[in-house]
Amino acid sequence: MHTSSELHLQLKRHFGFNSFKGQQEEIISHLMGGNDAFVLMPTGGGKSLCYQLPALLMPGTAIVISPLIALMKNQVDAIRGFAGDNFGVAHFLNSSLNKTQLAEVKEALLQGKTKLLYVAPESLTKAENIQLLKRLHISFYAVDEAHCISEWGHDFRPEYRRIRPLVKEIGKAPIIALTATATPKVQQDIQKNLDMPDARVFKTSFNRENLYYEIRPKVSVNRELVKFIKQNQGKSGIVYCLSRRKVEEVASFLQVNDIRALPYHAGMDAATRTKNQDLFLMEDVEVIVATIAFGMGIDKPDVRYVIHYDIPKSLEGYYQETGRAGRDGGEGQCIAFYSYKDIQKLEKFKQGKPIAEQEISKQLLMETVAYAETNVCRRKILLHYFGENYKPSNCHNCDNCLYPKKQFDGQEEMCLVLEAVLESLQQFNTEHIASVIAGESNVLIKSYNHHKLEVYGMGKEKTVSFWNAIIRQGVLLHFLNKDIEQYGVLSITPQGKEFMENPQRLMLYEDREIEEETDADMEFGSKTGGGGGDETLLAMLKDLRKSMAHKLKLAPYVIFQDVSLEDMSIIYPIVVDELTQCQGVGEGKAKKFGKPFLELIEKYVEENEIIRPEDIVVKSPPKKSANKLYIIHSIDRKLDLEDIADAKGLTMDELLGEIEAIVNSGTRLNIDYYLRQFMDDDKLEDIFSYFRYEATSDSVDEAQQELGLDYSEDEIRLVRIKFLVEVAN
User: Fold this and answer.
1) Which pLDDT score, from 0 to 100, does residue 345 have?
2) Domains of the chain with CATH codes
């Protein structure tokens, strides 16, 4: 057993540090004493050292189970850097190795040179690897990113749940499980699954004081993104998107706007991914646009901002991803763009999955909604989610604390909420209770006869969203308890009962009103959507559009959408090429409708001696698609759209997005052959007539509300494509 001074000497010798951080020394001593440990430490807290140093000091080989190949390479390179000449000190075992490399790893292991072996959980299950590991003296097992074990975690990996039986088969040794994010529920799940109920838990505060948290409405998101990055020029940042396609689009969009950005996602080949990651680490690139595949264990201390282009699926994911900013204790700005439409899209992805999985996913999503829409200190909400009580009322480092909203005395409202939870027998979740108080009428309320409760409709002058906010603050104040295992069922705590008996003045916040963007604004390449242009010119352009629409017997939006006119009032285009820089204006549309608009703008610019501000134009990449030619040719050959999607590995939603982009750029595609087999003539006619004579915009949501639920989103989108080809192009 090493004494404290010996550990400090070894720390200096191997890693060059003079002292340990936080609980590192305690964790290392505990593990080296042959005990199990469970380490909860925020990103940047120094988790890796907790198993790297003991592995170098203890006899035998430490097995480190890690989920990402890129992460393993990164860690092995770092250890070899510390180890100097001893190249064999660390190895990894995963599917990226060829036969020669595999033989080299086996030889180093059997000779006892390797102190740390990084293994992917999939590799651990292979019979030949199990046989190899049985021949070794194992010092301990480290399960890194341990939250992957729990289906309540943000990055669940089923193969992680097989670790314990495999460990038993290979040979008993202490286990250290480590994670940067785990709610109390996830902690319990990890300990149960790894069969380490008596492991000592080392928990460091999850508070990262240097991180600034802000939520922005997802309006004019691309313009906001470019503006923010240019204001932070020369600093390193990460932009997270939920889909691979969005990563590619955003990276391309930033490049067009002279920002050194590269994409990173699991669909890219390994060499390109590694190259892009290295360019970012070496600061040849200032921005990485990535899916959540990027960042686990990437040790870049000076990431100055993390932007979420899409809101993440869970608060754990959000916390872990924002945790990559400011790991050196310096500036770290965490900006997330939020739109409830994104939440609805995420819910839609889960349809068809088992009900339990859908419910878990919905619970996690609702926590994210609560965080995004609240006016309460964001730090308080994040830390409460991880079971930590943040005492200060103002953290002075989040948007809600720096720009606080007005509070009101909510003692009556809180008492009504507590009464509603009691009356419903403490068996229902936040959304249900809020709906009962607001007097909503839905199937669930009626099936439980909750419309007959005394509290039903007692808060009907306020919205469901308002009552949601009160309930969430009740949970934060420990008046209510939310049982995650029971899908968020609310019950009253002793503190809640005490408050009901002796109510007092209680200052509360309403939820934030989040501005929403229209379908047209949300389309990729949105450059304005928030106005800010020449209002006089905009009014003139709208008048011109109205008179043209009247003359051509078309809805005004068919000629140009509002966002297109707003762009014209900012950019002042006077030739066709400039007009196509405006959102929603392809070449075909510019040629068909553009001439009178260009003439009006040119005359206006001349008469008012306007200097056209080219420097503020946020450029859009040309709407090109790697699949464009294939799609056009396939539709010409009358192939089924499902077959086209399968051939290119696209979902139907993605394919329709590609077709819409092609059609918006002015290309005429005839999909009549598919429509004839996909839907009946009456439906087709109804939707076409709606867009031709009734619609005020090309919004699919509005169309669905008007036409009713018998018309699916795909049917509406397909007929809208036909309509745009025949009428707008």
Assistant:
1) 77
2) 4-203 (3.40.50.300), 211-402 (3.40.50.300), 408-508 (1.10.10.10), 519-616 (1.10.150.80), 628-728 (1.10.10.1390)
User: Is residue 526 within 8 Å of residue 224, measured between CB atoms?
Assistant: no
In angstroms, rounded to a whole number, what is the distance separating the alpha carbons of residues 585 and 446? 49
Torsion, Cα 418 424 425 426, to 10 degrees, reads -50
What would the two tokens of residue 475 be? 């949970």
> Quick one: which of 50, 69, 67 has its CA closest to 140?
50
Better-predicted residue by pLDDT, 597 or 357: 597
Q: Which residues contact 633 (CB under 8 A, 6 or more apart)?
A: none
Angstrom distance (rounded) from CA 629 to CA 302: 42
Tens-place pLDDT, residues 668-719:
889 999 988 888 888 888 888 888 888 777 788 888 888 888 888 888 999 8
CA dist., res. 337 & res. 514, Å (int):
10
pLDDT digits (tens, 9 = 90+) for 195-209: 888 899 998 888 999
Structure tokens at 224: 């906001």
Residues with Cβ < 8 Å from 288, sequence gap 6 or more?
Answer: 237, 238, 239, 261, 262, 263, 264, 276, 277, 280, 294
pTM, two decimal places: 0.62
The alpha carbon of residue 464 and the mean position of all alpha carbons in its chain are separated, in whole angstroms, by 25
Contact (CB, 8 A) for 184 and 485: no
Report pLDDT digits (tens) over 280-334. 988 899 999 998 766 654 668 899 999 999 988 888 889 989 988 998 889 999 9
pLDDT in tens, 497-545: 999 999 999 888 887 776 665 443 434 333 333 445 688 898 899 999 9
436 contacts 420 by C-beta, under 8 angstroms: yes
